[in-house]
Queue: 4 jobs
Job 1
Amino acid sequence: MKKFMPVEELARDERFNQITQADRMADGRNALIGEAEKSRKSNRLTPARPDASEAARALMHGIFVGEIQALEGAGRTCWDFTTGEEAPFELKLDMARQAWDEARHVEISLKLSDWMGSEIGQYAENTVLFQAACSNDPVLRLAGVNRALEGLAIDVFTTMKEFGEIAGDPYLEFCEDWMLADEVTHVKMGSDWLRKITENDPERRKKALEFQGIVDKMFSYGGSRSDSEESSFAIARRFRELAGFTEDENDHIADLGMQALNERKAQLREKQAAVTN
Amino acid sequence: MADPTKPRASFAPWDRRELPGSFSVEETARRVGNYKWAETKLFEVLGGWIATVPELDIKLRLGTHCYKHAWHAELWHKRLPELREMNPARLTVPANDALVRFVDAMTEPEDASLTIEKLVGVYRVYIPHFISAYTYHLNNTSEITDMPTIRSLKFILQDEFEDWRDGEMLIQSLLETPDHVDRAAAHQAKLEKLMLEAGGIAGHGSIGINTQAPQGALS
């Protein structure tokens, strides 16, 4: 088996429909703002939203496929790098542990999707998460996956946990809380390894943090995550701090989210103007 | 109330553990190093295969099993310094070149259509050889001097049996035609021949056959 698998080769059964981030952003339907969206004061996912059920099901499917890709990414880190030479033995042990955790998260997401009334393949699978796990440098991979992607998971799971709490769904709240505990552990793994491996290599650390910034912005999905009420998810600062993010780092991620949100709004305005004309 | 000054037998009547064992400290360290290498190769390939199998249930099982074998490798890694090997990497080696050839052949299948071959290599050949080597070790080491190894072997064997059963059931669920059965059997035979050459995960003598009592053994 070769090292470094391209995202196009991810193995799936016929129920899955894969799209790239570019496909998603190029979808013209995303530019159309409906009446419900225009009148909404906040984009946060709450049970009060008229489209709450559908939005929660779509998000849960997104979590499900994201967990599959996180599982595959952690597994590939066990395989792609030579033990001792390219990646420390203990780092690989952590990645194997993460693979087990992600496998459980897929199982949890499957049960929750069933509970919420959706099916595998009902929504498209965006493969952007695995793309972040394809770096040839294990440090960049940890920065992209464990700190950026798993950091996003902290934000998303916090939102879903609150959604379950407000909606009076203890099943959802219970599961999200358990997954949240694992994600904090994974982000901490990433933070710890990043510090340890680049202790005497500031250039490599800088490169890894820059890569994390790119992935963080990519995972902000056009501003879906920021401190603004216009974003679907807030920055879960408390849990992020537990995972090793500093206040400055959280502020930086919030800024990236706002930047992405404003860029997306500008794009939407352009597309709206094009539709109107 | 029991008399606290009354002498008791040092070993309770139900404690039948024996002192003699077949392995010296050096031989135990050699075997443990081989185990760590073999478990490491196993968790690495299980991790790599996750993205290559389209069957969702199998994908998830591989993720779970990947961690279990990583944990086994970690247990052996921690045992090595306790066996006077302060540089665990020195003994983390394959038992012989034939075992490397076996692992290379086992890890070769990559295409999404080769799930049967992937599972057969691990669950019908490699893991059964772990079970046999670990069982031989468990049954032949000193029950008193080498208790830490025994404790790890027992934990690990529990996992190996469960994983073997999981894997075997997955294989059976994939065998839908006589051609599938032939594929599984052919791949198993190919790998088993390589393992025959290797003699097992700790080399010849993995299960006590074709070997002389190691130097320093007390039996």
Note: Residues 138-167 of chain A form the longest helix (30 residues).
Job 2
Amino acid sequence: MQPAGGTSRQRLRWQCRRGMLELDYILEDYLEQHYPADTAELKAAFEALLQEQDPDLQAWLLQGQPAPSRYQAILRSLRAD
Amino acid sequence: MGLAKRRFDALIIGAGGAGLNAAIQLAGREARVAVVSKVFPTRSHTVAAQGGVNAALANVLPDNWHWHMFDTVKGSDYLGDQDAIEYMCREAIPTVYELEHNGVPFSRLDNGKIYQRAFGGQSQNFGGAQAARTCAAADRTGHAILHTLYQQNLRARTHFFDEYFAIDLIRDDDGAILGALVLEIETGEPLLIEAKATVLATGGCGQAFRTTSNAHINTGDGMAMALRAGVPLMDMEFYQFHPTGIAGKGMLITEGVRGEGGYLVNKDGERFMERYAPNAKDLASRDVVSRAIVTEVKEGRGCGPNGEHVLLKLDHLGEEIINKRLPGIRETGKIFAGVDAVREPLPVFPTAHYAMGGIPTDRFGRVLAPIGTGEEVVPGLYAAGECACVSVHGANRLGGNSLLDILVFGRAAGLDLMQHMESNHRPMSEAAVDKAMSRLERWDRKGDGISVRELRDEFRKCMEDHAGVFRTEEIMDEGVARLKALRDQLDDVRLQDHSRVFNTARIEALELENIMACGMAIAVSALHRRESRGAHSRPDYPSRDDANWMKHSLYLLDGDRAEYKPVQTRPLSVETFPPKERVY
């Protein structure tokens, strides 16, 4: 996967725009503050996570519901903000 | 290079529940339908509507659309139009069945019928015992509806322009709407979409306030486009606030926290609600609690380094109860306030939640604009959903009626606009296209100036302080003057990034203009309405004044003018519900 700087970063920024305020904050904060310095694995997981549905993201991030194992690490990073 | 153009029979701007339900009505007809959405459709704000949709199906308790109508008229504090309310409450029943047939997985009773739960403001027999009227798909109703409608639209070959931002409507000299100028966010290229009929379904404008429960996408784009096309906004002073949002951010903290025994305290640790509502205390109605919080902050008893919020204390409930009965509260507190609610209180402040007002329409979704002493349909323009004002919510909205509104009137607009499908496209107005293009090109100006973020933050803070829950003549007079001054500064804003591809800064600048247009509509309408009704509360005019104010406000961009029009008190087939004092 290409490193996301410049345009790709802007594209991701737009994909952080969700239907729920809670997700806007969590995803945008991560993208601004942690994404640039994170590992390639976490970056890839974040980009995949952005393709998931809003209620699933809400359940995993805010309601403590079990998430697929491929997202465990990135969800921990997102929650740590 | 010339401006790229596409032609469709119908153009729908916004892909939430209203827009998608309008689009699906045209499925199976020969119509070419375009849906423009600035984000991927299933990320529309409808997804946040988890509560459900009201319909008098009588599956759990006796019910009747006429009782639902009574509750809605009463809930609106008699400002709702009774023809539209009757239509909505009758249509609620087939609307829910249609969604069921289209595949929305409603929660069910053991007998297989759709489960319905009780919600505040629902009664049997015109104000009698509690009714159970809300249909839900677990806690994902909004998402289930959105997902189902999106799939249906894909199957019907609706053409989706995902991640396209609508800049402005194109209106010719006769006042007819010919389509819209939109921007492809990825390439930064404008596109002119011509249509025989256009539906605005862009949702609410909560981002006009600093503290809001609305997602970042809710910037009032359709409302502002309507204003710029010469259409007024109606009843914008009626904005619903929820008393407990996370301070400075706005995420909702459910009323259930206070229901379970949580309470509010000021910086002195005082349970201040005892002073404002000696009986109901922390469980007083939303507007009473909201105003009490703001009063504490204004009078210097707020908490935090700047004294800008109060605290919601629930640590005394114990970890077990909090985990069991208030799931998600700890996570919300930890992530957004850095506080573990089991140990520390949560910082809270009233959060802007829902716009009752919007683009005035009739019950067919047709947009209305004042002409002389009356009003006329704007040819080729429809609006539905939170951006529209039919008006079914009047001065206050009942829980479960917002999803219903978007579905019923999205559908009504879709059905009505079919009459345009046989007609020809009107000739394009080049002057109107140039005007819309100049709005976009304005952001190419270079040099030093104010940043979008700086002006946006100031405007939203001013809205919160001067047009929020605490509204006196003095506060709002000052507020309108300050908001106007901030609006004048818009001309001094400059972007640093002038690239084309995925330039989100340019989108945010266009959104700022929209936020400011909606904010002015709210503030000006609130200043002029000298009474308290529904969500609009004036300490200096504490009573409802039916003699002078049982009328809809209209705000016009030109000169920030306020006009008024009568409430439609005559229903379609039943007797009028005359105004009464609203007690629950």
Note: Residues 504-528 of chain B form the longest helix (25 residues).
Job 3
Amino acid sequence: MSSFARRQVLLGVGALGGLALLAPLLLANPYSSRLAQLLFLNVLLASAWNLVGGFAGQISFGNASLFGVGAYATSMLWLAGFHPFFTMPAAAVLAALYGVAWGWPCLRLRGPYFAIATIGVAEATRIVANHIEAAGGASGLTLPLEEDLGPVLLYALGAVLAVAAVLVSAAVRRSRLGLGLIALREDAQAAAASGVNVARQQVTVFAITAALTGLAGGYYAVFTLYVVPEKVFGFDLSISLVLMVLVGGIGTVMGPVLGAGIYLFLEQFVLASLADIHLAAFGALLIFIILLEPRGAAPRVAQFVRLIRRRAG
Amino acid sequence: MSGPAAGSALVEARGVVKRFGGLTAVHRLDLTLREGEILGLIGPNGAGKTTLFNLLSGQFAPDSGEILLEGREIHHLPSHRICRLGLARTFQVPRPFLAMTAFESILVGAQFGRRLPGTSASDTADRCVALTRLEPRRNAPVHSLNLAERKRLDLARALATRPRVLLVDEVAAGLNPTEVRETVGILREVHASGIGIIYVEHVMEAVMDISHRVHVLDHGATIAIGTPDEVTRDPAVIEAYLGRSAGS
């Protein structure tokens, strides 16, 4: 095993151990366990978004289309009699297939053109989903409350998914794929002239993004027990991912994790009283943060960590 | 076409045409780079030199004509495939990957370029760092490199793809005389390692110094081909650069 792989495993085990130690605190009451679930969900979604948005520089406003496919895959298979946890791989695969199906043509576009195309795809998906009667149409699907799917199990599943997403993100960043993505983000023509297959690299990473986003959709269905097109295919969701990653630090491994936490904190504690306009308020905050710290929180936090280490050592 | 005659040409363009709307940038151009050769490609501004590079490297497809690399048709292939077949290029204005270190940028070429068994990408990248005299800047962020260093970085990234043919676009422009001499020295080393070079340059002392033959373009067509001495004496070349003399 390479030293990087060993370090990855250690970090993963360490993170899961830490989350296990925190579990009694976070599972103290239904509200705190819901907060933990939402945090895991956000980390998973933001890390997935960052693979294509941060590393490849292709800003997607359409990840809800992938999230919704995952949420519906899990819900419908669950209602068809499968154990909800075993529907997760199907949620990942179906979302990846859908992602490749529309990502392949759309990723030929770059920058704002790609961003606009993703909005179109996601909105079309939402409207179509509203009309599929087999999937409950606009009123969605309500899932059964099962005794054995308790908060502990949901906490464990969320923790594993979130940690896995961060490890995948770190592995991609270090891989040949990651190097090619950053090259094509910086200059697609120069990357192609250096042998990078720009189209294939982008579709590959988008498939990973889509699979993780589909898993997030499945997880969401399992802990909310209610899936409706306006929510799981909603534009709000897509926008929130962009905001999380920009606030946390785009193109870094830990940025999406920080951004997911910051977003949840603001949403739950600071902006909750503003109810419906909380996205607008968050947008204003985002502009403020970008003016002060355009690279997001991650570089500043990394600097702080280095400072502490130097003091300690 | 095959046989010894075709085998001796590394790159061959035949009847290549490229139009942009009403402008014909390259018009029925024939060009040959022979094995073991440095071919200078000169001509006044707008003669079509950079367009020709973009055609050879697959950035554009020609409107008609064909381009062969070691006897194989490449004019319908995308850039990355042409690169992997062994044709690499630098850019007139360097196009660095600003978010990377110098070494990482070169590693891109080494990891994605032409595959040769038994060589590791990082060894290849390090050899290119050394060849282009970038050792002191190896781990520097690319955005901190100056123009001369960025030009050598472009060159190193192209060389890291292990090309058979290197297209060099104005690598000496904007450099001081010492830097020009250093760059010409690097190109000589590249050539000595068995790589064919097509060299576009406005800095005449550089291109005339190292080219075996010089191909002169004007308005997208060939006006002269020959040794550096022959083309500098050629009346058509003098006219293209300086205009017709008032006495004649």
Note: DSSP finds ten helices and ten strands in chain B.
Job 4
Amino acid sequence: MEKNLIIIGGGPAGLAAAKSAYDAGERDILILEREDRLGGILNQCIHNGFGLHTFKEELTGPEYAARYIKEVLDRKIEYKTGTTALSIDKNKRVTCASEAEGLMIYEAKAIILACGCRERPRGAINIAGCRAAGIFSAGTAQKLINIDGYMPGKEVVILGSGDIGLIMARRMTFQGAKVKAVVELMPYSSGLNRNIVQCLNDFDIPLMFSHTVVDIKGKGRVSSVVIAAVDEKLNPIKGTEQEIKCDTLLLSVGLLPENELSRMADVNLSPVTGGAVVDDDMMTGTDGIFACGNVLHVHDLVDFVSEESEWAGARAAAYIRGEKAKGERVAIGAEGGVRYVVPQYALRDGEENLKLRMRVGNVYKNVRLCVVCDGEEVYSKKCMIVTPGEMETVSLNEKQTRALKNCKKATVCLKAVER
Amino acid sequence: MKEMICTCCPMGCRLTVDDSDLNDIRVSGNTCPRGAKYGKDEVTCPKRMVTSVVRVEGGEVAMLSVKTRESIEKSRIFDALALLKGVTVKAPVKIGDVVVADVLGTGVDFIATKDVAVGPHGK
């Protein structure tokens, strides 16, 4: 079977990409979604705070998803739920399967990867201790409570202060559990400030920085965890151990872009973001394969996922029409406190104004976020504070974009504010 | 005196709010005027939107997500949540459907935040 555009994933990224590809004139679109309904992870994120940028109002996750699902349904864009993409290759052949239709093979002109991310599991962080029941990733606990209606436990310790962990501290409290502590390895939280206040402080849940879990105890079910302070090299400090009685340990220790399919198509991945390396059209190194949303780099706000994905959708439609810019690429590097920048490349003859998204590696106060082209500063923004937990965006105007696209070496970096 | 973290921006200023005289609340530690307003609101009448789930009978999923249509007083969150205990709604449900009306006499309803079509769950 042939399709112009196949979008893998029917969450916020896939929905926004489909909508904008359609609006850019593309009509032969298929969205593949492995769950039984569109909306992706938003369906289980029942808390409010979504859509402040996109809709200028505060929606819950399912409501935000519903807005974009409506856009897709209104345009009569084809989608298949309960359908898993099993493989893709660099020739843009997509193999997928569903209970209803069995195995299907599509030849696509373009593919947009919008597969989102997964939670880092226990095995990836090497916590010692027993293998008793009661250890969940925060997102799994969220699904159990909000979708399936089961309560994972009564006395809870949460490791990691990522946003899902913070949200789940409040959620478990609302459902009658006692959250005894949120334990964070780093001296700062990777979660949004607002979540620390409204999910922990509101309910007097202690947040312990520079601490980690060093042991999990229990037979059959978790009965306690042992936590300890860590030194500046993040190693546990002997003698600081304390045991906390609990029946449940939730892990909120980071998200990993889900790129199993990308690897099959030889998509070049960044070791920093865990997602594809893309140009300013959101196209990966494999011709005709695009990426957007959390499969590209993990976002903290869904609004930015939608924005980035709408761009990817429009550019994929242009690619299918044969309008993709060609020519040399300018590398956009990250230096001086900036951990990464997406996109990593800009096409020299592309005309569109650039939007750069980035994260910093530490907490910095009173800095300037700068774009430097061949040694010359073409953009600078004063920031009172930048933190690893909040993505920064730089929108370059026409002149600045031209400067970047015509230079040999572009970098984004932090500089001190001159007093 | 109350200590709190401002949530207006990522700066997260540590505010100290002197509420000994409710007619003259003094906020310090803020970097901008928004912080002063935040501090005042938080001591006079802190409000939160409350979100949770209730069971669905005969739906495509087992649980329906709900929210208070507007924010309610922070001190009444747990009383509001208690109203949801044992509540079961029948599918189909549409976004915006009232699940519990007039929560605790506030005039604010708990409303559905998800469409749930008819299905096999909870029969």
Note: The CA atoms of residues 55 and 81 of chain B lie 14 Å apart.
